[in-house]
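Practice record 12: protein with 2-acetamido-2-deoxy-beta-D-glucopyranose.
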Amino acid sequence: MKFLFFLFLISFIICNKKLILVQVITRHGDRTPLKTLPNQKNEWNCDLNFYHLSNPESKTIFQKVYIPNRQQFNGNCLTGQLTSKGFQQHFLLGQKLRKKYFNELNFIPEKYDPKLIYLRTTDKQRTRNSVYGNLLGLFPIDINEEKIEVLDVNTVDLDYEYMHVNKILCPKLKRLLLDLENSSFWKERKEYKFLHEEVVKIFNDSSLLDTSLRKVRDNIYCTLSHGKPIPEGISYSLAAELVEETRWQIETLFVNKLISKLSVGLLIKDILEAMQNKIVEKIEYKYMFYSGHDTTLAPLLSNFNVFDGSKVYYSSFIIFELYSDDSNHFFVRFIYNDEVYLIPGCKSTFCEFETFIEIAKKVIPINFTEECV
Ligand SMILES: *[C@@H]1O[C@H](CO)[C@@H](O)[C@H](O)[C@H]1NC(C)=O
Ligand SMILES: *[C@@H]1O[C@H](CO)[C@@H](O)[C@H](O)[C@H]1NC(C)=O
Ligand SMILES: *[C@@H]1O[C@H](CO)[C@@H](O)[C@H](O)[C@H]1NC(C)=O
């Protein structure tokens, strides 16, 4: 169930509850494709992440320069790299969050404070750079500041990451996905068969099956997002069908409760533990930011039973707000892209913390290793 956000800004005041912790989980912004397609001439140019300081005191800046004609696409971008457009999307989201949590609620400090702000990301260029864009909107640069500030952005090796579907960390996920994608339910659908046949025909390449088709769909989506020409032979209606197929597949994966649980159950554990630690004043953080993927947000929504299968767009965000009242009761609010959701099982959008714990515990693996065998 959805409610308009502004209604709840009013109730924030009426209900006399005090905000004590905000946790924001986002999808990265617009990015380049993961793969180029045969005969595709599009050029992708990126002006992000090209400069590196070896350390803050250093006067030397390194610039990354791609060797021409050795990349997936023409131009100077990495595959799946956050584009300037994607950076801007996160910058705007950061500004929006600043407006709410600083200007309106005076909750976060005016300037970045490492004691109060916690940052975490998957170790991908697009999610790391989304953090940078977002933080620039959340805490605008003070041009009078002389010294360079170093902000910690926490991450782990991709093989150990549980902020999204990790088939290496959880072998069972790999099997569940294979079984689903190999099922007749998946493969015998007329849309799936039609798209395969069309794409193989258009590119005259039978290797563009299964996982490769995913990269074709991904390419088409990124290309359309930039208004660049789509490959010859692919009509706009076929392109739309390819994009819809991606949405369908993400929906179908994450309505599966076991897949959703094993994908981000441990992240939910972290989110819950942060709340519990805040309540007993074990942590000082007021604002925790997690930079992830559509495969972070979709299973999160599914685990709280509010996933309607819609596409999780670039720089979408989920917010868990933790409140306390005068009599030491605690409440959680769940927000997705500006809308407050009633989590099924909660009596109100200010979900009583005990109820929230019960709901969260159902999707937190008790023994992840064992459940992932
Ligand atoms: C896919 O399903 C077919 C038929 O049910 C089976 O023979 C094949 O081994 C399966 N492939 C994988 C990778 O599971
Ligand atoms: C399609 O590919 C096959 C095998 O690579 C090749 O023999 C054939 O000439 C190609 N057809 C067209 C229309 O390009
Ligand atoms: C989790 O399960 C594994 C495998 O069954 C076992 O070795 C391990 O001790 C269990 N861990 C806990 C904390 O129970």
